[in-house]
Write a structure and sequence with these properties.
alpha+beta; elongated; 101 residues
Length: 101
């Protein structure tokens, strides 16, 4: 184990132990923040944006757009410059997906 002030190899470059600890704390904070953000929008919301819909239904955005191009995506509504998917259209889409399986 390296002592304070000693150099350790971390990634592609050598860093001091203090730098490694600071970077680890920063990554942990970022992960915690992302996790808290994902819990902030429940799946029973009134409406979803496309990224929220994809996160709630555990699909990637690229797969969402592929489904949309095939005519298999949920019904969308435009609100100003945002694309919104209502909870009702999401529920209808989920029931169609269940029937297709």
């Amino acid at each position: 184990m390296a002592l304070a002030g000693e150099v350790a190899v971390y990634g592609r470059r050598a860093r001091t132990v203090r730098e490694v600890k600071a970077k680890t704390k920063t990554r942990a904070k970022a992960k915690a923040k992302a996790k808290a953000k994902s819990k902030g929008r429940p799946s029973d919301a009134e409406a979803f944006t496309v990224p929220e819909f994809c996160q709630a239904h555990r699909i990637s955005e690229s797969f969402y757009y592929k489904l949309k191009s095939l005519g298999l995506g949920p019904e969308e509504t435009k609100k100003l410059s945002k694309t919104i998917i209502t909870n009702e259209s999401a529920a209808e889409w989920r029931s169609k997906q269940g029937e297709a399986a």
